[in-house]
Every structure is written in structure tokens, then in C-alpha cells.
Amino acid sequence: MTTTASHRSAAGFIRVTAIVAASLAAASCGGEAIGNLAVGYTPHERYERSLRDMGLAQTALGRDWLSASGHALSQPVSVVTPYHEVSYLDPAEPGAVGYQMTLRRGQRVMASMEVEADTGFRVFLDMFVVPNGTRRSPILLASADSSDRDLEYVARRDGDYVLRVQPELLRGGRYTVTILVGASLAFPVDGHDTTAIRSGWFARRDGGRRRHEGVDIFAPRGTPVVAAAKGTVVRTGTNRLGGNVIWLRDEIGRSLYYAHLDRHLVERGTKVMPGDTLGLVGNTGNARTTPPHLHFGVYQRGFGAFDPYPALYEPPTATQAFSGDSTAVGAWVRVTRDRTRVRTLPRTRSTVVSELVAHTPLHVVAGVGNWYRVEMPNGLSGFVQASVTELIGAPLRREVVTSGTLLRSRPALAAAALDSVVAGAEVPVLGEFEGFIYVEAPSGRAGWLRID
């Protein structure tokens, strides 16, 4: 039984595939030839430029690939980290996926991808930020190397971020993607973690005349204060508020401020690695009447001080393994009971997108824990619990077509015609949705027929 949604004829698709594959093979001879066409561009941009230079952007497949790039950014999947997904991209249908998450300034996002039955093809990983309160397009921030399937990025601002995943043209298959969020800084007091923070960001000081631009980490006097990142000591000294202080500049341009030290153990110009001792916890400066602690601040040029906590906190990173049917990923299932809820996130308390009746067909795009990420017949997407679905196999019943009609790609009269079904033909009914039945035509093609 054929259940693919491809609208191309088999012969036409094979011809276009052969032309595109031959062109790409010629262009990529030597491994990185495509990537070297435009030095300074991201791997995705270089690949896109190569398609245009070879005229492939004017083919149906090339246009679909470019369109998928934009669609992944305009219609991303909302995720909550830690996130682990088993997914599928059909090589015959150029596609891309965007995963949108909310990050705090200073958090490090780590994305990795594994391809099943790896054949060495490239997958492009790109990170974007979504501008707040504007209609501007997402802004590209970082990209993985052309041969790498891992990407890390430290958020420079609070907001929504999108990770785009897109394989080369005519490549795809089943893959897993894992997205984790963690600290971008090592904890600056040896042997302690964020539970030792007693005074947080922006707490009132001096009767409300100023705000606390950092966090206070309490520890016994003499506890080693350590480098929170690889960098260079740019200043040591003493001032009225901070007492004995150290300024450290890290590799991504942040200035890390250590105050109230009992004493310094480094000098200006010292190169340090995370965990190297810089000084000792004390209560110098305006902290002389408080218990020993480290005041730790983070500053960024153009932004000033910002809350260090997200850069220091290590949230849980354990992900839930996919427990659904792996053969369903990339295939069609149908709902087994009425009032099945499709939700925005793979969580029982997330917002309901739609409520479906029994026998509604769903295209399974991915698996997350005990949920499927699905596309509904009306084009909407969401998550449904795997336990309330079944693979489309045996027909629900058989019906005789009373008058000739068209087999359509979607349950809509304006949808593209895939085939025709003559009057008197008996077809197996595989599913139903809003006045249409999902059937297998005598030709073996699956699609939608209007119920008279």
C-alpha cells in the first residue's frame, strides 16, 4: 500500500533526481569544493549559493529546498529543554525543521544530531534569535561546521531562539536530535554551586538607592575563588565597595567581576583556565560587617551588567527515551478513540490544538518520549500520545464509489488531484476526516475522497 504524499510522477521524479544528483556530485568532487565557493559564508549559505550557481534553484526540488529553509524559521516547533526527538525527513521531499526554545542570557545551548545508517551526507545546523516586538526575520547567530553535527551557542540576550536542521538536497532519513541547556560558566567558588547564593540579582542596596548588580556566594573565609571561564586577568586592585577585586575577561568578551576577596593570588595579564585559583573568599570593602562571601558579577559590552544566575545554574539534562513505535516515525497512523487531544507540547497539561474523532489519519513526523509529533490532515501540527494511535494497516471497511471522482492530496476540494477513481470501484477506507475518507485507490495511490 502506498501512503506517500508526493505529488510528482515516479518517472518525472527519477529524471529530476538523476539530474540534480549528477550536478551535486560534480560540484562536490573533492569533498569541500561546494563549501569553498564562497569563503566567509556559513555552510548552509555556501550550499544554497552552489544550488543557485548551478541553476538547481530553478528546479522544483531546488525551490522546495529553499522554501523549506524559510518555513522552518517561520513555523518552528516549540520545545522545552532538555529535548530528545526521533524524527524523519523524507529524502524525496526537501524539508527542514526549526526547534524554538526560550533562553536566558548566559545560558549555553548544546544541540547534537545523529543520523541512522549514516551515509556521510551533510546536515546543516544553524542557530537564530527571534527579534522581540518587531517583524524582522530571525537573525543568524551561529552555525555548525559543514561536517559537524554538534552546535553550541551562549545566549547574549533573553528571548526565543530557533535551531534549524536541514539536510542536503535529496538526502534525509531517520535521525535523532538532542537539545540541552546548561551553564556557560564554571561555578566561581570551589566546592560550591548555586545553592550557596544568598543574595540575588538586583536586590535593593543602601535603602533602595542602588541595585545589586551580581550575586553573593557565601562560603568560609579562605575558600578558593576560581576562574569561571578561560580568559585573561585584566585588572586586580582595591576599591571602596568591592574591597579586593579581580576582573577577568573571557573568550567571548564577557567581563567577570570578583569582589570582597580576602586576597588576590593572580596578577594582571595572567592567563587562566576554568577552575584555576584567582584568590580567596573574604569580606573586604563594604562587606566587612557581613559573613565572608564572594560578590560575582558579569558584564558585557553594550549591555552592561546582567544576572549571572542563568550562566551558573546547571538545570537537569536527562532526556526521556522515545517509547513509541519507531516504525511509525515517518509513516501514517490513525486515532483509535474519540476526543483525542493534540497538544502544543508533549505534556498532558499543555495547550490543546485540536480534538480529533476516532479514525482520523495523522502523519507522524517525530517521536518524543511516549508522544508522537504529528501533522493533521488540515495542516496543523502538534503532539499526540502514542498510545491512542495505531499504524494504518487493515482497512476500516470497504466502500464502492458511486460516481467518478478525483483522489486528492488533502481533505479539501481545492487540493491537488493525485489520481482518478471511476464509478463502481471498490476502495479500502483507511481513515476519515471532516467529510472526507482516506482511501487506497485501485492504482495503489493513497489519498482523499469526498463523501457524497
Report on this model:
It is a single chain. With 452 residues, the protein is mainly beta. It has 4 helices and 34 strands. The chain has helices spanning 10-27, 43-53, 60-74, 309-312, and strands spanning 77-78, 83-89, 97-103, 107-115, 123-130, 139-143, 150-154, 159-167, 173-183, 197-199, 204-205, 210-211, 215-218, 224-226, 231-239, 243-250, 254-264, 271-272, 277-281, 293-300, 304-306, 332-335, 340-343, 352-356, 361-368, 371-375, 381-385, 389-391, 397-400, 405-408, 417-421, 426-433, 436-440, 446-450. Strands 10, 13, 14, 15, 16, 17, 18, 19, 20 and 21 form a 10-stranded antiparallel beta sheet that branches. β23 and β24 form a beta hairpin. The longest helix is centred in the N-terminal third of the chain and has 18 residues, at 10-27. It is elongated. Residues 1-39 have low confidence and may be disordered.
List keywords for this structure.
452 residues; mainly beta; ten-stranded antiparallel β-sheet; nine-stranded antiparallel β-sheet; 4 helices; 34 strands; 42% strand; disordered N terminus
Summarize the structure.
With 452 residues, the protein is mostly beta strands. The chain is 11% helix and 42% strand. The strands form 7 sheets. Strands 10, 13, 14, 15, 16, 17, 18, 19, 20 and 21 form a 10-stranded antiparallel beta sheet that branches. Strands 2, 4, 7, 9, 22, 25, 26, 27 and 28 form a 9-stranded antiparallel beta sheet that branches. It has a 5-stranded mixed beta sheet with strand order 1-3-8-5-6, covered by helices on one side.
